[in-house]
Amino acid sequence: MDALLLSLFLCLIIDGLGGQSLHAHHLLHHHGYSGASKAGIALALALYAGLAAAAGFYISTLITPEARSLFFALALGLSAAGLLIPPKAATSTEDSPSGGGFVASMVAMLFGGIGGNAQFVIAGIAAARADPWMAGLGGWLGSIAACLVLGGMLAGHRDMIGVKAARISGAIFLLAVAFFAAMAALRLV
User: CA angle at residue 102 from 111 to 43, to 5 degrees?
Assistant: First the structure.
């Protein structure tokens, strides 16, 4: 259960303040906020979370418990660095198919979100906790909340000082957790 809550909370922070929620908002705006486009985005996020959890579990079978904790710390550190880089102002949706289609939204979300930081964190949690089902489910729920709820609320306010301060605060929080996870893995704490 701790893997579920940890991945839900971290993916909510990373995707909510990062570029993934902005990308989802632009897709929903382009496809008309239909239920089919929301379902397509949710399925794309489920595929990402499932693949990341499976990869993390596979990695956990290959490395020692201390290395798993270091892998988790590395994922958090890189996600913190990703929050310090401002997201793109707008995601181009001109090449994506028009209409509110399920498949159009899913494919656009899949190709637009490749290399997201939340997927790396899901893999890190699945590796550190050796619980891919809960890590994947929590990451998926956190990403859905970030992309379908927070994305619309923050879309027009990405340049405001409060949102920039939240991104910096989120990055500092992730760096602090990464530092303590790495120190625990190295048995220095």
Answer: 60
For residue 160, give both structure tokens: 């405001």
Contacts of 68 (CB under 8 A, 6+ apart): 59, 60, 127, 128, 130, 185
Phi-psi region of 34 (alpha: psi -120 to 50; beta: other; left: phi over 0): beta
- Chain position carrying tokens 């008309």: 32
Mean pLDDT by 10 residues, the chain (189 residues): 90 84 78 79 89 94 92 93 75 51 72 73 92 93 86 60 82 93 86
pLDDT attached to residue 89: 54
Q: Which two tokens stand for residue 21?
A: 């929620």
